[in-house]
Amino acid sequence: MADFTRRDALRKIAVGGAAAVTAPLWVETLVSAAGQHAAHYQASAAQAAAWAPKALTPAQNETVITLAELIIPQTDTAGATKANVNRFIDAVIADASAADRQKFVDGLGWLDTQSQRDAGAPFARASAAHQAALLTAISTNKAPSSTEQVGVDFFSAIKSLTITGYYTSEVGMHEEMGDDGNMFFLEYKGCTHPEHKT
User: Fold this and answer.
1) Among 72, 82, 84, 117, which residue has the least CB neighbours within 10 Å?
2) Which residues of the chain have pLDDT under 70?
3) CA distances from 178 to 93, 150, 164, 184 (A)
4) What is the pTM of this model?
5) What's the rounded Cα separation, in Å, for the pair 27 and 18?
């Protein structure tokens, strides 16, 4: 099992998430949009000197940073924070429909509410032990109530967005996938945003 790397594990998670037949439409829509958005976003993000979230509040952005780093932590290679995955996620959410954006924001709110109830602090400010326990409970919940389903669906979405954002970032391509500058995607559908079409 020595050859089983974090890259393999994350790919397995991504495939498992994409194959889940129980994922609601809004999650599938955001995941699909992230894939189409990746090539255009990374090129423009690299040139951004000053950055501020477009769709998320500062507190929501902090939660996304915390979640993404828990999903892909820094080890011997960079984690999600260094790859600016939160910026990628914010860009995807900013371009999403109002309804899909609201579902994502509702998920962030649900997470903070649960954390506040159980740990007395919003998720990003809770202890590492509490954060891990809450995410474990969400990811292993096989029969969620209607209230819990909000958190289960949200976690499915942010896992997929984090993995897409990370593996299409310069950091992820270079450090995790060993890109020497000659790697390319077999298929590129192009950016679908009307303002970017030529």
Assistant:
1) 117
2) 1-22, 35-49, 171-198
3) 29, 36, 16, 12
4) 0.73
5) 10
